[in-house]
Amino acid sequence: MYAAIGAGLAAIGAGIGIGLIGGKGMEAIARQPEAVGDIRNNMLIFAAFVEAVALFAVVVAFLGL
């Protein structure tokens, strides 16, 4: 039961994190359109980091049975 709660919290946290990355990235592109390439690359890298941490959290949650 606790593993499912931990996995759910990890998924919710990843969703919030990627949403914030996307929102702030779009805001940055709106403020400085000439830097769209750099901003997009950074957004993809940080979204991958968030996903990796979320996957690690899910694995840890299920190993903690």
Could you write a compact summary of the structure shown?
The protein is mostly helical. The chain is 89% helix and 0% strand. It contains 2 helices and no strands.
Throw out a few tags for this protein.
single chain; 65 residues; mainly alpha; 2 helices; 89% helix; 0% strand
Fold and architecture overview:
The protein has helices at residues 2-31, 36-63. By secondary structure, it is mainly α. The chain contains two helices and no strands.
Estimate the strand proportion.
under 5%
User: What would you call the structural class?
Assistant: mainly alpha
Order of helices and strands: HH
The helix fraction, in percent, is over 70%
Individual helix count? 2
Low-confidence stretches: none
Distance between the termini: 9 Å
User: What do the pLDDT scores average to?
Assistant: 94
Rg from C-alpha positions? 15 Å
- The shape is elongated
Major sheet, described briefly?
none
Tally of strands: 0
